[in-house]
Automatic annotation (TrEMBL), chain A:
Residues 195-206 have a biased composition (Basic and acidic residues). CDD domains: AdoMet_MTases. It comes from Antrodiella citrinella. GO terms for cellular component: cytoplasm; nucleolus. Residues 20-93 form the Methyltransferase type domain. This is 18S rRNA (guanine(1575)-N(7))-methyltransferase Bud23 C-terminal domain-containing protein. Residues 179-216, 229-250 are annotated as: Disordered. One of its GO terms (biological process) is rRNA (guanine-N7)-methylation. Belongs to the class I-like SAM-binding methyltransferase superfamily. BUD23/WBSCR22 family.
From TrEMBL, chain B:
It comes from the Eukaryota. Interacts with TRM9. It comes from Antrodiella citrinella. InterPro entries: Trm112, Trm112-like. GO terms for molecular function: protein heterodimerization activity. Pfam families: Trm112p. Transmembrane segments: none annotated. This is Trm112p-domain-containing protein.
Length: 250, 123
């Protein structure tokens, strides 16, 4: 996912960048950033996760910080920001204090993030929304904070592989377009259930055999015969019209 | 693991603290030197974003006097090496950072600064 986020960030190639990893956790995505030669700063609200990151000896600087309280970075500090599966946590209110309400925290997060990023640059935030309303809320607040861009959905039809990326741009630049989400099936084979292949095969066989129309004349006569035998009343008489098709003009 | 590169970007973000909130002052710090790979392109690219005076002051406070007080016009290898050392190899492990304006104390323990704010300080 981090690779995909980096791809969406669209950084200039072969140039080491200075990135912000929001909700770095144990430094999983940080390791990938290290691999790619980028310098980074990670923030996370969980001290235990940061300790794990310390043990893994990642290269970036780590901060214990609540992103809903905003960042204190100087304007134009970072070449980009990524965040993997984090910002849905901003939607929970922990206390009833006004600064703890989701819209307030989101506003604070996006405005300070916007100012911490360089112009032009991008932020790619992958998250798990539980409803469309949440996406709506998050994008509207991001736009109010000055970001351009929008939501990119990878594999929109897959339950498992579906990923929502919020792709935000700082600065207009004019030419910046929201990238397309990945379409189609996830890699074949991997996502299939055990007997799916067999089921598909047998399905093909069944559809090969031509199905007979059940409502033919024979069938109707047989049914009527059956009803009469059972003593059912008002069974229509057989005639030359029984089971005939009506004219198309009817 | 606060390196001076991040310290140079860090300002106080408490409520109402919007002026004179940079740079945060170090206090009672212990530093550790850890070698890092020199990447001249990155350093050169980062130069325009550095707040030079704050960086030199912080470096001197931590006991490194290799940097000149003015940013030099010409960038040579020697200078890049010194700058690289100051920016990326000096890690502050313990201590605190104090905002010069509202004197909020951000404690650093185990290399991780605690940037959390109390409820009444959230803007």
């Amino acid at each position: 996912m981090t690779y995909r986020a980096l791809e969406l960030l669209n950084l200039p190639e072969d140039e080491p960048a200075f990135l912000l990893d929001i909700g770095c956790g144990s430094g999983l995505s940080g390791e990938i950033l290290d691999e790619q030669g980028h310098h980074w700063v990670g923030v996370d609200v969980a001290p235990s996760m940061l300790e794990v990151a310390l043990e893994r000896e990642v290269e970036g600087d780590l901060f214990l910080q609540d992103i809903g309280q905003g960042f204190g970075f100087r304007a134009g500090s970072f070449d980009g920001a990524i965040s993997i599966s984090v910002i849905q946590w901003l939607l929970n209110a922990e206390t009833s204090h006004p600064t703890s309400s989701p819209p307030h925290r989101l506003t604070r997060f996006f405005t300070t993030l916007h100012s911490a990023l360089r112009n032009p640059s991008r932020a790619v935030l992958q998250f798990y929304p539980t409803s469309d309303d949440q996406i709506q809320l998050i994008t509207s607040i991001a736009q109010k904070a000055g970001f351009g861009g929008g939501v990119v959905v990878d594999y929109p039809n897959s339950k498992k592989a579906r990923k929502v990326f919020l792709c935000l741009f700082v600065g207009s630049g004019g030419a910046q377009q929201v990238p397309k989400g990945l379409e189609g099936e996830e890699e074949a084979g991997s996502g299939k259930a055990m007997f799916e292949a067999r089921r598909e095969r047998s399905g093909v066989k069944r559809s090969d055999k031509k199905r007979k129309s059940i409502k033919g004349k024979e069938w109707i006569l047989k049914k009527k015969e059956l009803y009469r035998k059972r003593g059912k009343e008002s069974v229509p008489n057989d005639s030359k019209f029984t089971g005939r098709k009506r004219k198309a003009v009817f | 693991m606060v390196r001076l590169i991040t310290h140079n970007l860090l300002a106080c973000h408490a409520k109402g603290c919007t002026t004179n909130n940079f740079p945060l002052q170090f206090k009672d710090v212990s530093i550790e030197l850890r070698e890092a790979e020199l990447n001249p392109d990155f350093i050169k690219g980062f130069l325009p974003r550095i707040e030079w005076k704050a960086l030199v002051d912080a470096a001197r406070q931590l006991g490194d006097t290799t940097l000149p007080s003015e940013m030099p016009e010409m960038v040579d290898d020697e200078f890049l090496k010194n700058l690289h050392h100051v920016l990326l190899e000096m890690h502050v492990e313990e201590g605190a950072m104090i905002c010069p304006n509202c004197s909020h104390v951000y404690a650093i323990s185990n290399g991780i600064p605690n940037m959390l704010l109390a409820e009444h300080e959230i803007a």
